[in-house]
Design brief:
The complex is a heterodimer of chains A (151) and B (474). Chain A contains three helices and eight strands; from the N terminus they run αββαββββαββ. Chain A has 151 residues and is α+β, with helices and mostly antiparallel strands. The chains are: A alpha+beta (151), B mainly beta (474). The interface between A and B is medium-sized, with 25 and 39 residues.
Chain lengths: 151, 474
């Protein structure tokens, strides 16, 4: 009985943000980190995976500004995106599979999201986007890798 | 656009970890009527039922019924009568004999809670608990309110999410129905209005707008669109004449983000009630009528007279106390807020006035002959005899609006009476016999209801009370 408008809004926000040019290496950390995010369980080999990366709880839970955004074309059942120059710390990711490639989360007439979405740690939605508490993970200096199952 | 789901979702973001209230300690002996809210642990395999008396008329077919039948898991319990898992029952009648089968609708909610051994998903009156997984409305869909036949499938209906398709023979779940790809996860009320032609109209309600569903007789999507409503009313039912949809908006409206859903609504009688009448052929042609404040779940079929007057009846409560407080208490064995639904005729007049006329009896689950849906009628099939000393109906009856008289049969204090449906010249329905601890099937002659059933059968199981169902002739 839940309306996931907040979720749809959050995920559509990814699309808007991804249109902005993101600096390749925005980090000021002395020892930058790299993060490889693999998306698995993709059912339709079309469109793109769109994602937002957050580095703090406030921005994540209040649909605030992500630290990075990306879109990666989907050609099979797996897609990978790589971020360089991140500051070591805690991060969380919101993502959706833009199956029709129009850059927006498809919704039904009541605003319910209709394209697959997921969160880091594969945190479960509970009537809205997963919370930072459940979705955040640690990135350390050097190479890091996480995977997210698109559902 | 705001609706209950949005409020619930917002609430959930802060309340997802709220635990269920601790179970009542050292509970006294439960009253006998709590058998009507027991737990069925397994599907009911097809089995013969025993004929108690009478020579059944030559009617062959299946009475499909649906209702919540699993309320508790471990120490956890649903917080409302409306939130148990839907168990679809098939009473198959042929050659004077009857058989019964029952099968739970295999919903995501049920699967998750079976796996966890706990009730976790939020509902009408049940808060979410730790472990809830809600990616869309259908994750909380209990599929527990009604079952209709549409083409080669049964549709188990809830109201805030999709219909769920079932196999009519095995009752096996086929899955949620997406009528069009962009209409997944849509609300679909448990009370579609079916024209004598078979065409199905329904509403998906959410806040100040509703989606109008138009389906063919075999359940194929024909058309649909959003229409604005006079207010953000809770809606469990609507009605229709041959030419118009009739949407009664009550002053129990979306008001906050509190959980669970029933607690997010506010009773605002100062708003009064409104009736929205929409032309089936042009959903932009609409008019509104004003009525005094009332609360309802169920309406009867509507009809139209030559001068444009529209009439329909409903079972009206004075406020939402039963929905808010009465029905949750039932799950815990408490009956503290009695239900007193008054059968009432609504008349919408050509000059724009509207008025109410009470029949003077308590009644619920109004039904009328499906062949007269949307057409003039004088009778309303109902259950009734509600009293403050015990919940649920005791009688089945037919109210005659022309004579102003009720022909009814009282099953007595030991029977909880469920909905009866008209089938030809008979009424067919079920009761839960508290003395025998068994669910019974009855047929009554519509011309002589007071004489009692012309034939009755008793099953070997006591099934929790069902809400609604429909007859499919063989």
């Amino acid at each position: 009985m839940l309306k996931l408008i907040t979720l749809a809004t959050a995920l559509t926000g990814i699309a808007a943000a991804s249109a902005i040019t993101v600096p390749a290496a925005a980090s000021t950390a002395d020892t930058p980190a790299a993060l490889e995010v693999a998306f698995e369980g993709i059912e339709s080999p079309t469109g793109q995976i769109m994602l937002s990366v957050f580095d703090n709880e406030a921005a994540h839970d209040a649909d605030g500004k992500p630290v990075r955004v990306a879109a990666v074309a989907v050609e099979g059942d797996r897609a990978v995106v790589r971020f360089e120059g991140l500051a070591p710390g805690s991060y969380a990711i919101k993502t959706f599979h833009d199956v029709d490639g129009n850059g927006e989360m498809a919704t039904n007439p009541f605003g319910m999201p209709l394209e697959p979405f997921a969160f880091s740690n594969n945190a479960k939605p509970e009537g809205g986007p997963a919370r930072w508490q459940a979705a955040h993970f640690t990135v350390t200096a050097g190479a890091n890798a996480v995977s997210i199952t698109i559902q | 656009m705001l609706d209950r789901r949005q409020f619930v979702s917002r609430g959930l973001m802060t309340c997802a970890a709220v635990a269920l209230p601790a179970p009542v300690l050292a509970a006294p002996a439960k009253p006998d009527w709590t058998l009507g809210l027991g737990d069925v642990l397994e599907d009911i395999p097809l089995q013969s039922v025993t004929r108690l008396h009478g020579k059944p008329p030559g009617i062959a077919g299946t009475l499909y019924r649906n209702g919540p039948a699993r309320f508790r898991r471990g120490a956890s319990a649903a917080g409302h009568w409306f939130d148990g898992d839907g168990l679809v029952r098939a009473w198959r009648i042929a050659g004077g004999e009857a058989r019964l089968a029952g099968r739970f609708v295999d919903t995501p909610k049920r699967r998750l809670e079976e796996r966890l051994g706990r009730i976790v998903q939020p509902g009408f009156g049940t808060p979410a608990a730790a472990g809830a997984e809600v990616a869309g409305p259908d994750d909380t869909n209990a599929a527990n309110t009604n079952v209709i036949v549409a083409g080669d499938r049964l549709l188990a209906l809830w109201e805030a999410g999709s219909a769920t398709a079932l196999d009519p023979e095995t009752l096996a779940t086929r899955g949620p129905v997406t009528f069009r790809p962009d209409l997944a996860q849509m609300p679909f009320l448990a009370h579609p209005r079916v024209e004598p032609s078979g065409r199905i109209w329904n509403i998906g309600s959410g806040g100040k707008a509703a989606f109008i569903w138009k389906l063919s007789a075999d359940g194929t999507f024909e058309a649909g669109q959003m229409v604005p409503l006079p207010m953000a009313s809770y809606m469990h039912d609507f009605t229709a004449t041959e030419r118009h949809l009739v949407i009664l908006c009550q002053p129990w409206v979306v008001a906050s983000s509190r959980l669970p859903f029933s607690q997010s609504m506010a009773w605002q009688p100062e708003l009064g009630s409104r009736v929205l009448v929409i032309d089936k052929d042009d959903l932009t042609k609409r008019r509104e009528y004003e009525l005094p404040p009332l609360f309802f779940f169920h309406l009867g079929d509507a009809w139209e007279e030559a001068d444009g007057t529209i009439r329909f009846d409903g079972c009206f409560h004075k406020d939402p106390t039963f929905a808010l407080l009465g029905a949750p208490g039932l799950v815990e064995g408490r009956y503290e807020h009695s239900e007193r639904p008054e059968l009432t005729m609504v008349t919408l007049r050509p000059d724009g006035r509207a008025d109410l006329a009470a029949a003077g009896i308590t009644a619920e689950f109004p039904r009328s002959a499906p062949e007269l849906a949307g057409l003039p009628r004088r009778q309303t099939v109902h259950v009734g005899g509600y009293r403050p000393d015990r919940p649920f109906a005791r009688t089945v009856g037919i109210w005659d609006w022309e004579r102003g008289a009720n022909d009814s049969f009282n099953f007595g204090a030991q029977q909880l009476v469920e909905e009866f449906v008209p089938v030809g010249g008979y009424l067919i329905g079920t009761t839960l016999n508290l003395a025998a601890k068994a669910t019974e099937l009855h047929m009554l002659d519509s011309r002589r209801i007071a004489d009692g059933p012309v034939a009755s059968w008793r099953s070997a199981v006591a099934l929790p009370l069902s809400f609604h169902g429909n007859w499919l002739a063989a």
